[in-house]
Design goal:
Blueprint: H1 20-39, H2 45-59, H3 69-93, H4 111-126, H5 129-139, H6 145-152, H7 156-174
Helix pairs in contact: 1-2, 1-3, 2-3, 4-7, 5-6, 5-7, 6-7
């Protein structure tokens, strides 16, 4: 005679909330990569990443879907990068911040590529922060237009205008 087992129904339990430490360990490199590409300078990355995770610590409990954390962090990184770019532009206008070629984040191997990259970064430094970020997210980070619009907090039409404006500026200098 076999004993019958009660028919237990498994109930979907909500996942344990993510801790800031686990989110940092999982996503810090990704956030630093996004910030690196948006700002183009090494020495500012750590400060912005720290600001991103400080902001994330205040809102982490509100994130319901763990899969959404990466995108949420990227959106915060975009917001802080735009602020940093605006601050940089103001410091530059006041003569307090000058970019030298060796500060540029990416360092290609060939001299021609280095010169071209320096020219592109010079153009990017002269663009409005929102145009620069939209262009960089699409052309450097490889994000879709829809995702760029979400990360920048604007409509698809607006992000297309920003990217086109940045592209025209770069083409004028690089061509």
């Amino acid at each position: 005679m076999s004993r019958s087992r009660p028919n237990l129904k498994l109930i979907d339990q909500p996942a344990a909330p993510a801790t800031l430490e686990s989110v940092y360990r999982t996503h810090a490199a990704y956030v630093a990569g996004v910030v690196f590409k948006l700002l183009g300078r090494d020495h500012e990355i750590d400060d912005v990443v720290q600001d991103v995770f400080l902001a994330a610590s205040r809102g982490l409990e509100k994130v319901r879907e763990p899969a959404a954390i990466k995108g949420w962090l990227a959106t915060i990184a975009v917001r802080f990068s735009i602020r940093r770019l605006r601050q940089r532009r103001l410091r530059s206008f006041l003569g307090l911040d000058a970019v030298t070629e060796n500060e540029i984040a990416a360092t290609p191997s060939g001299q021609e590529q280095r010169v071209l990259l320096a020219r592109v970064y010079a153009v990017l430094d002269g663009l409005p922060a929102r145009d620069r970020v939209a262009w960089t997210l699409q052309h450097v980070e490889g994000e879709s237009l829809e995702r760029v619009a979400r990360m920048c907090g604007c409509s698809l039409a607006t992000v297309k205008r920003r990217i086109a404006s940045a592209q025209r500026s770069i083409e004028r200098v690089v061509s």
